[in-house]
């Protein structure tokens, strides 16, 4: 190490992911080892991501982290597990410009600072810990020159937050549950990259919920302790579904993908209901969204519009449990169907009068343009969808029941950001900018 003052930093950006075959239930709570394989799609980090800068300096007296502008403790077991695993794999580094050399041995004594931002509203609870822990592990691995591939890093991220292991890759990702007691084979692997199926459009409706929160950790624990269904799911259902899902993804077979995703989501909710005390992640709004979309699919599926049947049935719904809010995830096979879906959603769930459109529909704004919606007046002017008109009952609207919509698509895995101006850490002080 050089004698003068120095700070070395690395900045990285990592995506979040959403499961299409769900992880629910652990066989080891400390190592975070699941009872079944799971498969996810990585969401485009241009819309939802975590950015994390990490720094090392001999002046740092202890490991510190600032999350979304506030200092938070790194003393939790999960953070400590990740830090310990990374430190034990750190290698020598040399920064010639700064005249700094750090040896493997030095890393045992050096402390790090971590500054992280999630670019999506934290209140949405949208798997922020997946993107966050993946970004923490990825950026520290770069800083510490950890010479391990993404799969090995995924096993470290897994110990911070289970689903974080799947955020180490873009596209479609499988988390293999593994068999070893020490978790060494419980890793994520990429099934296909994000370009493989790039016409998928993902719309997430973040639904306000007044329900009592159940954290995933305690919910999963209760399920494994009390549900009779979960063992059947993990041992009999998921292994077959994983094979079918891999095939559907490989062949870009949307009807099969939709069927498997919906079936898995429904079974996940059934397992939650089979838990003592029962866990209810869906609320009236999520049920309403599902039944509107079902109605639309059925309407378009009548013989008169046979030609558009395959197009419209390509809207799929799954509900995802998040911390305080409930999100309904809708994936459509193409942009035309996605724009029609968004029109319907905005018709039934218009924003509160004082909300502006840019904060009500976030992410890929081009879907809004495709839907012909430029401002609030366009939402007010939307006419009831034809499948509702048929029933001769006035369509009921639920203003304010959706907090906001996110439009996105499959995206890339983690990247290092080399542009210094994007760093969240002051390179002189090692503190947040
Ligand atoms: N938990 C939630 N978001 C996080 C982040 N960005 N970094 C670390 N932990 C997190």
From TrEMBL:
Top class in the EC scheme: lyase
InterPro entries: GHMP_kinase_C_sf, Mev_decarb, Mev_diP_decarb, MVD-like_N, Mvd1_C, Ribosomal_Su5_D2-typ_SF, Ribsml_uS5_D2-typ_fold_subgr
UniProt keyword annotations, A-Z: ATP-binding, Lipid biosynthesis, Lipid metabolism, Lyase, Nucleotide-binding, Steroid biosynthesis, Steroid metabolism, Sterol biosynthesis, Sterol metabolism
Biological source species: Penstemon davidsonii
Domain Mvd1 C-terminal intervals: 202-416
Gene3D superfamilies: 3.30.230.10, GHMP kinase, C-terminal domain
Short name of any one Pfam family annotated for the protein: MVD-like_N
Role according to the record: Performs the first committed step in the biosynthesis of isoprene-containing compounds such as sterols and terpenoids.
Protein name per the record: Diphosphomevalonate decarboxylase
Membership in a protein family: Belongs to the diphosphomevalonate decarboxylase family.
Origin superkingdom: Eukaryota
Domain named Diphosphomevalonate decarboxylase-like N-terminal: residues: 15-188
Enzyme Commission (EC) number: 4.1.1.33
Reactions it catalyzes: (R)-5-diphosphomevalonate + ATP = isopentenyl diphosphate + ADP + phosphate + CO2
């Amino acid at each position: 190490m050089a004698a003068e003052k120095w700070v070395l930093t690395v900045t990285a950006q990592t995506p979040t992911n959403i499961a299409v075959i769900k992880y629910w239930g652990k066989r080891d709570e400390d190592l975070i080892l699941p009872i079944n394989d799971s498969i996810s799609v990585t969401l485009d980090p241009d819309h939802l991501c975590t950015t994390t800068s990490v720094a090392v300096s001999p002046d740092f007296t202890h490991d510190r982290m600032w999350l979304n502008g506030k200092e938070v403790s790194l003393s939790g077991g999960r953070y400590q597990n990740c830090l310990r695993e990374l430190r034990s794999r750190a290698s020598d580094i040399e920064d010639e410009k700064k005249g700094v050399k750090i040896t493997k041995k030095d890393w045992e004594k050096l402390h790090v600072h971590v500054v992280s931002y999630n670019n999506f509203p934290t209140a949405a609870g949208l798997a922020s810990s997946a993107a966050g822990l993946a970004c923490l592990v990825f950026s520290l691995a770069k800083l510490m020159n950890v010479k391990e591939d993404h799969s090995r890093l995924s096993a470290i991220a897994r110990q911070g937050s289970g689903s974080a292991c799947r955020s180490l890759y873009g596209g479609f990702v499988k988390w293999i549950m593994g068999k070893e007691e020490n978790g060494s084979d419980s890793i994520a692997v990429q099934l296909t990259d994000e370009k493989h199926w790039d016409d998928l459009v993902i719309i997430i409706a973040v639904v306000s919920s007044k329900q009592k929160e159940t954290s995933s950790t305690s919910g999963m624990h209760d399920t494994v302790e009390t549900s009779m269904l979960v063992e059947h799911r993990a041992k009999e259902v998921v292994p077959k579904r994983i094979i079918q899902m891999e095939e559907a993804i490989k062949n870009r077979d949307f009807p099969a993908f939709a069927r498997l995703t919906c079936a898995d989501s429904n079974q996940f909710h059934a397992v939650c209901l089979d838990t003592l005390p029962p866990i209810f992640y869906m609320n009236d709004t999520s049920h309403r969204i599902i039944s509107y979309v079902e109605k639309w699919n059925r309407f378009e599926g009548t013989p008169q519009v046979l030609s558009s049947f395959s197009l419209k049935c390509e809207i799929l719904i799954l509900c995802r449990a998040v911390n305080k809010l409930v999100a309904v995830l809708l994936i459509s096979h193409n942009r035309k169907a996605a724009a029609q879906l968004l029109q319907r959603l905005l018709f039934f769930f218009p924003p509160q009068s004082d909300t502006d459109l840019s904060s009500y529909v976030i992410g890929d704004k081009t879907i809004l343009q495709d839907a012909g919606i430029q401002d609030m007046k366009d939402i007010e002017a939307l006419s009831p969808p034809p499948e509702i008109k048929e029933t001769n009952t006035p369509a009921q609207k639920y203003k304010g029941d959706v907090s906001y919509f996110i439009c996105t698509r499959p995206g890339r895995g983690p990247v290092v950001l080399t542009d210094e101006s994007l760093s969240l850490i002051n390179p002189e002080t090692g503190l947040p900018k």
